[in-house]
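Second attempt. The first submission of Ribulose-phosphate 3-epimerase had a stray character pasted in from the spreadsheet, which I only caught after the job came back as garbage. Lesson logged: always re-copy from the clean sequence file. Corrected sequence (221 aa) follows.
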Amino acid sequence: MRPFLIAPSILSADFARLGDDVKAVLDAGTDVVHFDVMDNHYVPNLTIGPMVCQALRNYGITADIDVHLMVKPVDRIVPDFAKAGASIITFHPEASEHVDRTLQLIKECGCKAGLVFNPATPLHYLDHVMDKLDVILLMSVNPGFGGQSFIPSTLDKLRQVRARIDASGFDIRLEVDGGVKVDNIAEIAAAGADMFVAGSAIFSQPDYKTVVDEMRAELAK
Ligand code: DX5
Ligand code: ZN
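This time the job returned cleanly.
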């Protein structure tokens, strides 16, 4: 398995001083900026769009930006995020009429592509597209809000997806999003995840580096 990546969810960052806060969380030793896009339609919350992604690039953020689209429809916002500096774009398959087409669109725009599965979304969406995936993201909460509790059935789902990735031979990251904390990250890694989104666990603490170091220590066990 490749090195573990920690992806702070900026949903829990301070939006009034977002550039500084994103820089601080990267300086604390995190790897990828997880950028949650909510449309008040697919999910019951409203967040940020391509302009904010571009603003982070203009501010000087060079880390990969992992855009998690919780929007419906999906396709028309994809080119805008690619132009705004997204590195990875993931979407929920049930929000797209044509999953294969959306994956191709993301790739044509020059980004890495991934599918996101809600806790109750079946894995059959993987059946014919493994060759087009760079990332599979399993939600361990229902999407829409930070600060929710990790849903334990995700562990078994992670093990299933890890087995599918390994059997496929493709180079696909297995990302988990929701309720990831210092005290459960080791168990989540043991189930097969190699990319960990954490929002409230990091941003709720005064010293981001302490939490990130604790997560790395757990991952090294
Ligand atoms: C939820 C988002 C998550 C969220 C995670 O819909 O996709 O990325 O910010 O927040 P925590 O880590 O607080 O559960
Ligand atoms: Zn997310």
